Amino acid sequence: MKFIAVVSLFLAFAYASVKADEVDDAKEMLRGLASDCKAKEGASDDDVDGFVNDVPPKTRTEKCLVACMQEQFGVSNGKTFQVEGFLELSKVLMKGDDSKMETAKEIADDCKAMANDDRCELAVDILNCLKDSAEKHGIELKH
Predict the structure, then answer these.
(1) Which N-terminal stretch is annotated as signal sequence (predicted)?
(2) At what angle do helices 60-72 and 119-136 cross, to 10 degrees?
(3) Which domain holds residue 127?
(4) Mean pLDDT by 10 residues, the chain (143 residues)
């Protein structure tokens, strides 16, 4: 089961490594982590729920919420995808699983060129790249 897809596929990729009974706890943790970004981006509870429940971001606010979360986790600096941040987060989420980390490195390599001057559109670009790359590596994700 996936960890979550909208926060960024890097978190959805992690969902594959958690048990079903941990999903609700993970979602609650994400709601808590999203509180600062919710306030910063002017997002609603519904925006946060969509983020936590794997609803692809469509509105500007939803995209900016994802951007803020990616920045908070070090996956984006608002201009480019951050390979090192993605790998550091992956290391924590994959709990030292070498084969999953190898896949994470390959996914990061596929997305290393992601860049956009619009941080909110960059968030969507990163989501899409990570999703496409994960699927290329045999990881099927909903988003």
Answers:
(1) 1-20
(2) 70
(3) 21-137
(4) 38 50 74 92 95 90 96 96 93 82 94 98 95 86 53
